[in-house]
Write a structure and sequence with these properties.
28% helix; globular; ten-stranded mixed sheet; disordered N terminus; alpha+beta; five-stranded antiparallel sheet; T-fold; 7 helices
Length: 344
């Protein structure tokens, strides 16, 4: 069931960072160290607080870049490229674990998360190629090779039927953010913010002991619609506004593809923000829930309840799960936005 509430609050200025924005008010900037780099086809940054954290930052950066080389769908030296090119290949334990997780999430979401959708995504030009609108016949042919149940994983050996291809894009950044957080903790970091292209992981609290303030981007414009107060968790947002193109007829196509139709998702959701203990879970669910639509996403939360979410919808309203309702506040410009609480 849903109940509605209206909230209004004036918040401090926030600084934008990819899909989310982060406010560091109250921290001691003199103790902050930051590393910035490019990996997994996006800009990334890791900020840690305390003395002697620079080595930990470099190790976290190295870990993300190492995983990128293993899982790239376009790098001829990657393990995923080897699987896709040969149809059968032995992979490392980490890659096998990632593929196993993707297949589990695909099953859990009824295929809303689909790790074999790469040929369709490529046909639309969302993998670095030129954007185009493929014909219906082309899409139907490509969809014949889509289906997570076609993937066989036995130990560390992956087998794919001819024409089937894997893509770790829906979970790779989330998994890498978890590994980066692990590296930081193992090296004594107690307060850090990891931002891998909008995949946020919060290590501990801010140095002043307060929660981090993470802004949820306005999918219809600049700025944010509200702020999440959180610590020791991951936060990932997915929305069609992230990457899209306008066709000759004026139609705007987003990059999130519906595995059933092979076309960009067009439903009642503008963006989904997922909050959970693991980045990989947030990453997988943010895509899958966007595909499901508002009602399907709400029902998935009621069934599993191992995450919280905030949905911004085309009706101009927000829909939040009851576990996050007291930690999400609308910003001043969106103070009249109706926030519907999804209850179990």
């Amino acid at each position: 069931m849903l109940m509605r509430r209206r909230i209004s609050i004036i918040l401090a200025a926030v600084c934008m960072a990819a899909f989310c924005s982060c406010s560091f008010g109250g921290t001691n900037e003199e103790t902050a160290q930051k590393t910035e780099f490019f990996a997994m086809d996006t800009y990334m940054s890791v900020t840690a607080y305390g003395e002697g954290v620079q080595k930990a930052l470099e190790l976290a950066k190295d870990e993300v870049q190492r995983l990128d080389k293993m899982w790239s769908v376009t790098d001829e030296n990657s393990e995923i490229y080897a699987v896709n090119g040969g149809g059968k290949a032995a992979v490392s334990g980490e890659t096998a674990q990632l593929i196993s997780f993707m297949l589990d999430m695909a099953k859990r979401t009824g295929g809303a998360l689909e790790p074999t959708l790469y040929p369709v995504v490529k046909a639309w030009g969302f993998t670095g190629g030129e954007n185009r609108v493929p014909s219906g016949d082309e899409i139907q042919q490509l969809l014949k090779n889509v289906g997570y149940e076609k993937v066989s994983l036995s130990g560390n050996t992956v087998t794919l039927p001819e024409g089937v291809m894997l893509d770790t894009g829906a979970v790779g950044k989330g998994y890498a953010s978890d590994k980066a957080a692990q590296v930081l903790k193992e090296n004594g970091v107690k307060s850090a913010l990891i931002d891998l292209g909008g995949n946020i992981v919060l290590v501990g609290r801010k140095p002043d002991g307060e929660d981090w303030k993470i802004g949820v981007r306005d999918p219809d414009g600049d700025g944010v619609v509200g702020i999440i107060s959180a610590s020791n968790c991951a936060i990932v947002t997915s929305g069609a506004y992230e990457r899209n193109f306008t066709a000759a007829d004026g139609t705007v196509y987003g990059h999130i593809i519906d595995p059933k139709s092979g076309a960009p998702v067009d439903n009642d959701i503008l963006s989904v923000t997922v909050i959970a203990s693991e980045g990989r879970l947030c990453d997988a669910l943010s895509t899958a829930l966007f595909v499901m639509g508002k009602d399907g996403a709400a029902e998935h939360w009621r069934t599993h309840k191992d995450f919280e979410m905030i949905m911004l919808c085309k009706d101009g309203q927000a829909y939040v799960t009851e576990g996050i309702k007291d930690r999400f506040e609308a910003d001043e410009e969106h103070s009249e936005m109706i926030i519907n609480v999804i209850e179990g």
